TrEMBL record:
Coiled coil: none annotated. This is Acetyl esterase/lipase. Pfam families: Abhydrolase_3. The keyword Hydrolase applies. GO terms for molecular function: hydrolase activity. Residues 57-265 form the Alpha/beta hydrolase fold-3 domain. It comes from the Bacteria. The keyword Hydrolase applies. It comes from Glycomyces artemisiae.
Length: 288
């Protein structure tokens, strides 16, 4: 399908994003707190739905490693809806953002893994599935933290939930069939913008550590994975390559292309059916 009219209107300046009124959190108790990490306290926000829990999810927002917070829809709204739809205890992590100078790789991964270590140590989830997920740059951090959990614990993840992850550098090329419609989208991940993100995050674009953009890492042993990609997104190619890599290794993996959507569509409340279905697709991954 073509780019969704909602995004076309925004790109043209003729439309307005959905009003960002406070998202309804009824039935989900939230709490802001912090966990200890190697670089100091890591702020987190927890989301506990009413009733018995099916498990828990650690969630990392996107923002190119340098932007974003717990309040953005991709953080807060997604966490509320994951809690509701998966009947899961959700922990949204406010990892330190790369600033190109003092805060760089591996600090954001350290923060996410610190939050994972805290969540994995909660006795109430000792016999329940716990998953880790994230969007865009947060997807990369989620994969990297899952690799650490596989290798050094404290326990491996039971599910990996990824929304349009930025998992590879260099970023793979899109299939040529998408070029005509992608040409109408002004918000693109061109060569300069991708290199800028990597330089700010890692400090260089050569000899990039395998776990920084973890599509280059050893991926065997990762848990069952769900990958959501946007139909019109330069990073779609990274998510699709990751799906092929995991399938080749025998990791159970499912990919869904959100029709008509552009990168970051979870940063818009789920008023559109495609955004609503995107969150449901991820939520279903915790319990198989």
């Amino acid at each position: 399908m073509p780019v969704h009219p909602y995004f076309t209107a925004i790109f043209s300046g003729e439309g307005e994003p959905f009003a960002e009124a406070a998202w309804d959190t009824s039935g989900v108790a939230t709490e802001d707190t912090a966990v200890e990490g190697p670089h100091g306290p890591v702020p987190i926000r927890t989301y506990r739905p009413e009733g018995a829990l099916s498990g828990a999810i650690l969630w990392a927002h996107g923002g190119g490693f340098s932007h974003g917070d717990l309040d953005m829809p991709e953080g807060h709204v997604v966490a509320v809806e994951l809690a509701r739809r998966a009947q899961a205890f959700v922990v949204s992590v406010d990892y330190r953002l790369a600033d190109g100078e003092q805060t760089r790789y591996p600090v954001p991964i350290d923060d996410v893994h610190a939050a994972w270590t805290w969540l994995a140590g909660q006795a109430e989830f000792a016999d329940a599935p716990i998953g880790i997920g994230g969007a865009s740059a947060g997807g990369a951090l989620a994969i990297s933290a899952a690799l650490r959990a596989r290798d050094i614990g404290p326990r491996p993840a039971d599910a990996l939930l990824l929304a349009y992850p930025f998992a590879h550098y260099p970023n793979p090329s899109l299939d040529w069939s998408l070029y005509p419609e992608m040409a109408t989208i002004p918000a693109r991940f061109d060569t300069a913008s991708v290199e800028g993100m990597v330089r700010n995050y890692v400090g260089r674009i050569s000899d990039v550590p395998a776990d920084a953009l973890p599509g280059a890492a050893r991926l065997d042993g990762l848990p069952a994975t769900r990958i959501l990609v946007s139909e019109y997104d330069d990073l779609r190619a990274s998510g699709e390559l990751l799906e092929r890599q995991l399938a080749e290794l025998g990791v159970p993996v499912e990919l869904w292309v959100a029709p008509g959507m552009t990168h970051g569509h979870l940063n818009h409340p789920p008023h559109l059916p495609e955004i609503d279905e995107s969150i449901s697709f991820l939520a279903k991954g915790l319990n198989g």
